[in-house]
Design goal:
9 strands; alpha+beta
């Protein structure tokens, strides 16, 4: 096998290992309110209104936490927290977020109620029209924040 092919295989293997390590790091632990990587029991990370767990994605320079706040009315609400130390959070979340139901239907947020686009810490609530009929599962997809093309937050709706 030529040396070039061996080098390419070695680089690809290294990329796979790095991606797997990042996946394990980002998805096997929860970030608690103090920002440490201490594991948080599921019940402490669950929203009592929706019964669904908050999820955090720490890829890239921006950490994103999403909590389904209220999925019982005609408007569905998701609490969003963005944190960074290196980039300006000047994103229009109503243009970068989409809710996808279990049938593949996509919903754009109707409104953002929260901090304006700036700074290194933002939080607020994204509000969507409720999918009808109520889906079995949902994915909240956030695109192009902090050089990460797509972040997906998945929940089963009971």
């Amino acid at each position: 096998m030529p040396k070039v092919k061996i080098a390419i295989i070695a680089v690809l293997a290294a990329i796979v290992i790095i991606q797997a390590a990042n996946y394990i790091k980002n998805y096997s632990r929860k970030t608690n309110s103090t920002g440490s990587n201490k594991s948080v029991p599921q019940s402490e990370n669950q929203n009592p209104s929706s019964g669904l767990e908050a999820q955090t994605n720490g890829e890239g320079p921006v950490s994103v936490q999403v909590t389904p706040a209220d999925l019982t009315q005609d408007k569905w609400k998701f609490e969003i927290v963005l944190n960074t130390h290196s980039v300006e959070l000047d994103y229009d979340l109503t243009q970068l977020v989409v809710l996808v139901d279990s049938s593949g239907n996509q919903y754009k947020p109707a409104v953002w109620e929260g901090d304006p686009p700036s700074g290194h810490h933002r939080e607020g609530v994204l509000i969507f029209e409720a999918p009808n009929p109520k889906p079995l599962s949902i994915i909240l997809q956030i695109n192009n924040i902090g050089s990460i093309e797509r972040r997906a937050f998945f929940w089963n709706i009971k």
